[in-house]
């Protein structure tokens, strides 16, 4: 019997002899003619009257009916066999006997190599004859009753004892609690299987079988097959050794620095305890961390804009004259410098926004109607890579008239010092990139650009203000020129001027 060994903690490594011989099975067909030869075995007439019945065999198929009480030389083998199995049926109480001889005839008791007898029950019964050596050549059948008939079906024979069990497929080293799964095979089909783990009593098991609940460490599985005739190889079962790894350690507890029971990875305010995760303006920043008024309110003309962080880091500095009555104003009024903006917020016009390392979307009023008025309109811009101040007139001549939102460029700390002395041509001090839908103006050092639904950038250099347009058009107002300058898509225009040279030592604008 082959034995399969699973290399510990490694992939499966098998060492097994050549496959054992599968038994040959003679199955009958309706109107079977004799003699019948299958493999090394031949069923002959002998002194019996042979006939086949179309259905009702042990597997409900055709079977062979013998009408004589003695059938010598019923089955002959071209080569010696080790085991012969078959199903038999006779009237209840009748003794069915069979003998196997080592020669081509059974003339006397000395010729008999294997003999067995059973009491018939009226139903199909398995019948097995085996010899210690390959010595079986002729099968003879007898009945204790001289009258009546008996039936045979699915005659199986082999030159080796069968069934022979193997474990051709097995899992590698397994980790608890995942079950170890093994697949079995038998040289006899059909077969059932009996399993034993670590020497426990054998129990019937499925194929494939999954074994769970084992302690970490080495284990052994033994398996033997039981064929349709009830024959087993319990004396030499197939075996496999396997290892169950210790369970993986539990993952470390999720960080929760504010101790509110919500892990930092999903906490919308990881620095302030807020187990309710309330987020009134749905900007993914919890109310407990909102340092600016919420951004779920519409912009008020001339008073507020709504700023939403799209990417990167963004900071806001409120005007020094922010009124105490500004809606939901808390810490921003008490802190004089820049504060980080998270999510979105409503900020007063006149505030400074730093997007040098980020990008924002700005919603502002597009006419002078109050935000609650159904005639109120909005305009929107995406702004990045800039420090600027937001401004807007409180009211136009007519409420329905479009009012512009001004984006006034401011210099990052120390940037203007680049223009002292003789800076290289084109030295950049500050810039802004914008995508606008509505009326926006960028206020640079040498020109003011007005755009409606355009994509453009404004750059203040030491030698002037450069406007570059990607889409739409930008109209430039220059103090020294009465006629505006129109810069169209794909064009650029530099308004030359000596900027920032006299501002050496100017204090940084970020507090």
TrEMBL record:
InterPro entries linked: TSP_type-3_rpt
Entry keywords, A to Z: Signal
Disordered: annotated span: 242-286
Range of residues in the leader sequence: 1-18
Name this polypeptide is given: Thrombospondin type 3 repeat-containing protein
Provenance organism: Solirubrobacter deserti
């Amino acid at each position: 019997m082959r034995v399969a060994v699973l290399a510990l903690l490694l992939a499966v490594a098998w060492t097994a002899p050549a496959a054992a011989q599968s038994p040959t099975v003679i199955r009958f067909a309706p109107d079977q003619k004799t003699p019948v030869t299958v493999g090394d075995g031949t069923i002959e007439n002998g002194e019996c009257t042979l006939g086949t019945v179309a259905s009702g065999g042990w597997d409900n198929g055709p079977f062979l009916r013998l009408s004589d009480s003695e059938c010598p030389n019923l089955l002959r083998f071209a080569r010696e066999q080790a085991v012969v199995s078959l199903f038999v049926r006779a009237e209840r109480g009748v003794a069915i006997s069979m003998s196997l001889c080592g020669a081509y005839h059974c003339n006397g008791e000395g010729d008999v190599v294997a003999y067995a007898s059973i009491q018939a029950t009226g139903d199909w019964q398995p019948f097995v004859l085996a010899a210690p050596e390959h010595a079986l050549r002729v099968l003879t059948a007898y009945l204790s009753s001289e009258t009546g008939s008996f039936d045979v079906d699915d005659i199986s024979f082999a030159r080796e004892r069968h069934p022979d069990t193997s474990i051709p497929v097995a899992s590698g080293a397994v980790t608890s609690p995942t079950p170890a799964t093994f697949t079995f095979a038998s040289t006899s089909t059909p077969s059932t299987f009996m399993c034993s783990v670590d020497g426990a009593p054998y129990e019937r098991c499925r194929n494939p079988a999954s074994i769970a609940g084992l302690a970490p460490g080495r284990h052994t599985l033994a398996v033997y097959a039981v064929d349709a005739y009830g024959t087993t190889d319990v004396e030499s079962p197939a075996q496999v050794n396997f290892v169950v790894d210790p369970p993986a350690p539990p993952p470390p507890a999720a960080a929760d620095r504010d101790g509110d029971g919500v892990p930092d990875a999903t906490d919308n305010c990881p620095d302030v305890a807020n187990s309710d995760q309330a987020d009134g303006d749905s900007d993914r920043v919890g109310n407990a961390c909102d340092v600016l008024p919420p951004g779920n309110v519409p912009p008020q003309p001339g008073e507020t804009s709504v700023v939403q962080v799209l990417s990167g880091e963004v900071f806001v500095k409120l005007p020094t004259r922010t009124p105490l009555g500004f809606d939901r104003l808390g810490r921003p009024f008490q802190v004089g410098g820049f504060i980080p903006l998270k999510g979105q917020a409503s900020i007063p016009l006149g505030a400074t926004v730093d997007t040098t390392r980020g990008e924002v979307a700005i919603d502002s009023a597009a006419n002078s109607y109050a935000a609650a008025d159904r005639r109120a309109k909005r305009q929107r811009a995406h702004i990045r890579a800039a420090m600027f101040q937001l401004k807007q007139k409180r009211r136009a001549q007519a409420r329905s008239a479009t009012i512009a939102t001004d984006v006034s460029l401011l210099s990052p700390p120390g940037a203007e010092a680049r223009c002292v002395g003789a800076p290289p041509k084109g030295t950049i001090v500050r810039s802004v990139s914008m995508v606008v839908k509505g009326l926006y103006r960028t206020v640079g050092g040498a020109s003011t650009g007005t755009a409606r639904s355009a994509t453009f950038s404004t750059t203040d250099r030491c030698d002037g203000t450069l406007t570059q347009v990607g889409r739409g058009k930008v109209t430039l107002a220059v103090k020294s020129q009465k006629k505006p300058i129109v810069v169209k898509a794909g064009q650029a225009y530099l308004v030359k001027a000596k900027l920032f040279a006299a501002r050496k030592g100017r204090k940084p604008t970020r507090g």
